[in-house]
Amino acid sequence: MRFISRDAPPRVVHQLQGAGIHPLLAQLLAARGVRDPAEVEPELAAMLPPAALKGAEQAARALADAIARGERLCIVADYDCDGATACAVGLRGLALMGARVGYVVPNRFTTGYGLSPAVADLVATQPGGRPDWIVTVDNGIASVDGVARAHELGMRVLVTDHHLPGERLPDAEVIVNPNQPGCTFPSKNLPGVGVMFYVLLALRAELRARGAFSAATQPRLDNLLDLVALGTVADVVKLDANNRLLVAQGLKRMREGRMQPGVRALFAAAGREPGQASSFDLGFALGPRINAAGRLADMTVGIECLITDDAARAMQLAQTLDAINRERRGIEGEMREQAQAALAQIQLQGSGEAASISLFSPGWHEGVVGIVAGRLKELHHRPSFVFAPGSDGCLRGSGRSIPGFHLRDALDLVSKREPGLLLRFGGHAAACGCTIPADGFDRFAAAFEAVARDGLSPALLARKLEVDGELAPQWFDAEVAQLLQAQVWGQGFAAPVFASRVEVLHQGQLGERHMKARVRLLDVPAGAGATRELVAWNRSDFLPAQARVAWRLDTNTWQGRTQVRMVLEAVEEAD
After folding, report:
1. I need a labelling partner for 26 at 20 to 30 A (CA). Which of 205, 236, 366, 427 fits?
2. What whole-number distance in Å separates Cα of residue 259 and Cα of residue 255?
3. Minimal CA–CA distance to 92: which of 249, 258, 308, 314?
């Protein structure tokens, strides 16, 4: 591990400070490419306009016509948090504008991902009869056969998605996707829930133009921004300026107590306080509870939690999601231990270090392979794929990648080099899924390793961590920690990590899996807060007597007393 210091251009720091931004925050934001002070507390008026998103206005006209004719719509969702929140946004928003709308969510274990022919058949046989329109959310851009089947059954299709398209687009009536050919929308990182929100904005404008609403009577779509923020953070899309705006606005509403009953219930189930909501809460507390339903059970539970207006029912559903998530953590822990043992055995038998990781076990759970792949990627800094048996006899794999290695492009190369191996695949740069034949794992592992070796240089394979340098002693306090926690951090806009040379005065175990130490900062003058507490989560091995550590600023409140502390992120290797 090597630490790389971020560069904050002094001129930009000065400009941000001149706009009234806290000196430390100005430095951190400048180092992350922020140049405009308006990005710090963005207003909704600064959102990219819906008209810039290809297909949004066409979708608005089609939906407005369908509403006018009393036609029935059915949302086909996805079984992750982005898909669940996109479905909830679509259901709530379309209903506000007079639509007759229901939903179907594919099952990971039976119908598979997205609008497949089987899902089109399922939609057509819903209670109440065949709908007139299918509206996909967070899926559909690869559903060539599914859209064709929907047409055979007499249904029209509106695709809203954000995943990268394949060589052939589905023959849908309308496609809204910032990554489709010919779309010049500046934010290519808009998640599925964001795409659906933009379609609703365009629809509201269309209905307003038709005289259905005035500016005073139109539905308040900003009330859906708590769901947009949750899906955006949970899907780990890059937090560009537009996505940060959406998340910031959603968090603002949560802190003010304005949120769906299901979101409030999820905060309670996770033991979090919505009045202090942060992007960390969305990504590591609420998001995993929604995702757990799609991984182990049925995402209907998650969607129902987000769409109910009954607070008691929302709490009951949130508690169910919490229980499913606890089960998921247990399964994940066992799989992670087995994966580490299998990887150690492979490394023991192999010659030289591999550029990728591919693992399979017949006893693993297909709903958890993505999480385990992510853990392996974090631990070993290698593109990682983990496979488990699917209910159809094939193997289902989920992959996670490191910066500089585009995972979907890598799978595209594998499919070209090994025809017939990838039965289905899709995703984006950082995360992908695929299905291979039951006997295809060894072929996949070899082909994926070859692509990784071709595409990854030694520099990309070296573990690096970007840090923000030493934190000045005057900023080591609870007020600054709370200021930083209130900002929107996430993928592509990393939370602050500081670096310090420390001497370890004493250290010991904290519970069964953690560590706590008292350290002295070697580059801070004595008496200026140079002795501090450092905690290390999920670390059992002790620190060396002296080390350069990367850490986050954190607070811990116990019995009414708030303590500021360092939370260990990494230890730099000695030269």
Report:
1. 236
2. 9
3. 308
Classify each residue of 462-494 as buried b or exposed e, where b means 16 or more C-beta atoms within 10 Å of its C-beta. Answer: eeeeebbbebeeebbeeebbeebbbbbbbbbbb
Q: Which of 443, 445, 448, 387 is nearest to 414 (CA)?
A: 448
Q: pLDDT (tens digit, 0 to 9) for every residue of the chain, 575 residues total?
A: 899 999 999 999 999 999 999 999 999 999 999 999 989 888 999 999 999 999 999 999 999 999 999 999 999 999 999 999 999 999 999 999 999 999 999 887 788 789 999 999 999 999 889 999 999 999 999 999 999 999 999 999 999 999 989 889 999 999 999 999 999 999 999 999 999 999 999 999 999 999 999 999 999 999 999 999 999 999 989 999 999 999 999 999 999 999 999 999 999 999 999 999 999 999 999 999 999 999 998 899 999 999 999 999 999 999 999 999 999 999 999 999 999 999 998 887 765 689 999 999 999 999 999 999 999 999 999 999 999 999 889 999 999 999 999 999 999 999 999 999 999 998 888 899 999 999 999 999 999 999 999 999 999 999 999 999 999 999 999 999 999 999 999 999 999 999 999 999 999 999 888 999 999 999 988 776 689 999 999 888 889 999 999 999 999 888 888 899 999 999 998 65
Strand partners for 136: 76, 159
b/e 140-157 (16+ beta carbons within 10 angstroms → b): bbbbbebbbbbbeeebbb
- Take residue 288 and report the two structure tokens written for it: 């995993």
Token pair for 315: 């709490």
Query: Residue 451 is inside which H or E element, if any?
Result: helix 441-455
200: which 2 tokens?
Answer: 């609703």
φ, ψ of residue 32 to 5 degrees: the values are: -105, 15
All structural domains of the chain: 46-321 (3.90.1640.30), 354-460 (3.10.310.30), 465-571 (2.40.50.460)
Residues contacting 542, CB < 8 A, separation 6+: 504, 507, 515
Task: Name the pTM for this structure.
Answer: 0.93
How many CB atoms are located within 10 Å of the residue 69 CB? 8
| Residues 381, 572: Cα–Cα separation, whole Å | 15
